[in-house]
Specification:
The chain contains 11 helices and 5 strands, in the order ααββααβααααααββα. By secondary structure, the protein is an alpha+beta fold. The chain has one domain: Glutaredoxin (3-Layer(aba) Sandwich), CATH 3.40.30.10. The radius of gyration is 17 Å and the shape is globular. It starts with a helix and ends with a helix.
Length: 202
């Protein structure tokens, strides 16, 4: 557990100015983009979200499911999910979600958002155990889960990757959507649908 706490502390340090100075030396080339939908789709959507953000949970439990049915599964939209880390718990959750690879990422992400109010409660040790339980239900072997949660190099890379992406896209809040390179704040699904239809018609 001490090593896991250290991972979180390290992540918080990296999110300060001191951490940014180290960013250039951190290798983020191994970080995999988590995506859904046809790569050749006319509309691309990048969502910046945090597993500890209630508004993001609402988006994933509602609008994203509609978006997936209407546009992602019909090859009209290519969707990319990118993490934002407001705290170490969001980082830990991302490390669990990524632990079983891209194939299981969105399924685990759904579990994390569905159970957000439950797993985010308690002291850090309790939150870590809550995340372990979600990982176990998702079918991640205990040893593999511990390795993921205690991978300091991956934690540093994820934070550096987040910082670089968020800075490049001017992300200041979550969820933020980048639709065909244009930035939008959170919105009702009908408004999102109207934007997508407009992009598809261009």
């Amino acid at each position: 557990m001490k090593q896991l706490i250290a991972t979180g502390a390290l992540a918080l340090a990296l999110m300060t100015g001191a951490g940014q100075a180290q960013e250039a030396t951190i290798d983020t080339s191994g970080i995999v983009e988590m995506t859904m939908g046809a790569e050749e789709a006319k509309v691309t959507i990048v969502e910046y979200a945090s597993f500890t953000c209630p508004h993001c949970a609402n988006f994933h439990k509602g609008p994203l499911k509609q978006l997936k049915a209407d546009y992602i599964d019909t090859d009209k939209v290519h969707f990319t999910y990118r993490d934002v880390y407001f705290d170490r718990f969001g980082l830990w959750a991302a490390m669990v979600a990524r632990c079983a690879g891209p194939e299981k990422f969105f399924g685990i992400a759904d579990m994390l958002y569905e159970q957000q109010r439950e797993w985010t409660q308690g002291e850090p040790a309790q939150i870590a155990d809550n995340l372990r339980r979600i990982g176990k239900v998702a079918g991640i072997a205990p040893d593999a889960l511990e390795a993921c949660l205690n991978d300091n190099e991956n934690a540093k890379a994820l934070v550096a990757w987040y910082q670089a992406n968020a800075e490049a896209d001017g992300v200041e809040s979550t969820p933020t959507l980048i639709i065909n390179d244009q930035k939008y704040n959170n919105m009702p699904y009908d408004d999102l649908k109207a934007i997508i239809e407009e992009k598809l018609a261009e």
